[in-house]
Amino acid sequence: MERTLTTVPYGSGHLAALDYGGTGPDVLLVPTLGSCAPAWDVVAQRVDGRCRLVALDPPGHAQSSTDPSDASDAWRSIIAAVGALGLERPVLVGHDHAASFVAQAALADPELAAAVIAVGGSLARGQSDVEEIVDLIMVPEVADGLRRRFSFGAVARDPDELERLVAAVITQCDADLLTLDNGGAEREVRHSLLRLPDGTHMRRPRVEAIQEYARITTDHPLFPDNRLARGLRVPTWLVQLSDGDDTRFAANERTLARSSEYLHLVQLTAGQWPMYSAADELAELIVEVAVGVSAIRVGGGGPAR
């Protein structure tokens, strides 16, 4: 599978993205916090050129050199990437925390997206659920734990150190409950190592970058709880996973899907990383949604059902 690493100016540096090519409707794929663009490699392979796919490294992650300054970079970077990459009203696909990012972008710019696909239960979280996550990531002991578990922010000073770091992170990811069914650890780990001007390589994101995404107050109109989904005015698919942490929000997702004509619930037999464990099904959903909303845009009509 061919893909091209491309960069576009953003903030004091650049955003990086993997362009998988393809014809047909445009689709922008956004990985969750701590992950990076190659998380979508297997899905892109299954899509097999039926859509034009681009996967983004969020600010502070992997090959995107710009660090986030606050939570607004979650959606401002997506809006900037869509414009700079020449994507025409793409379907925005976000996994886990990035489900909120793509919803925020679609709300911040109502003309940006043709549709949203939210993979995992993030959009079903209530305010208190999100506040708990925000508070937790700011606890120094939790931040230190993330550094130890995933080597976020670690620096390799020479090629030997680089290979040792890659091997160590792959071992950590393979053994960790948060990434246990992530079958693409080596691709993601190698992509996450940004070469710095002094020739060293840093494993990104740093925990401090992740914390910036949590700097948002509950009274912000784009606070990432279930109010986001209720405000969306583009067709939105809530992809409910059968396994993993988000299963505790399954009832919330069902309630949320009934609250708006724009929201549709899809159930997927998969764990925390469906891009690996259910790549075929997720790829078919992306193609079906992208082609469907593209046809509606050309032919006219209301929300897709």
CATH topology category name:
Rossmann fold
What does the largest sheet look like?
Answer: 8 strands, mixed
The whole-angstrom Rg is 18 Å
Instruction: State the end-to-end distance.
Output: 33 Å
Binned, the helix content reads 25-40%
Total count of strands = 11
Fold topology:
Layout: E1 4-10, E2 13-21, E3 26-30, H1 41-47, E4 52-57, H2 73-84, E5 91-95, H3 97-108, E6 115-119, H4 127-137, H5 140-150, E7 155-156, H6 159-175, H7 185-191, E8 193-195, E9 201-203, H8 207-212, H9 227-231, E10 236-241, H10 250-257, E11 263-268, H11 274-277, H12 279-299
Parallel strand pairs: 3-4, 3-5, 5-6, 6-10, 10-11
Antiparallel strand pairs: 1-2, 2-4, 7-9, 8-9
Helix pairs in contact: 1-12, 2-3, 6-7
Summary tags:
alpha/beta, Rossmann fold, 3-stranded antiparallel β-sheet, disordered C terminus
Characterise the protein shown here:
The chain is of the alpha/beta class and 305 residues long. The protein has a single domain (4-138, 217-299), classed as 3-Layer(aba) Sandwich (Rossmann fold), CATH 3.40.50. Helix content is 40%, strand content 19%. The protein has twelve helices and eleven strands. The strands form two sheets. It has an eight-stranded mixed beta sheet with strand order 1-2-4-3-5-6-10-11, sandwiched between helices. α1 crosses α12, α2 (73-84) packs across α3 (97-108) and α6 (159-175) crosses α7. The two termini are 33 Å apart. Residues 301-305 have low confidence and may be disordered.
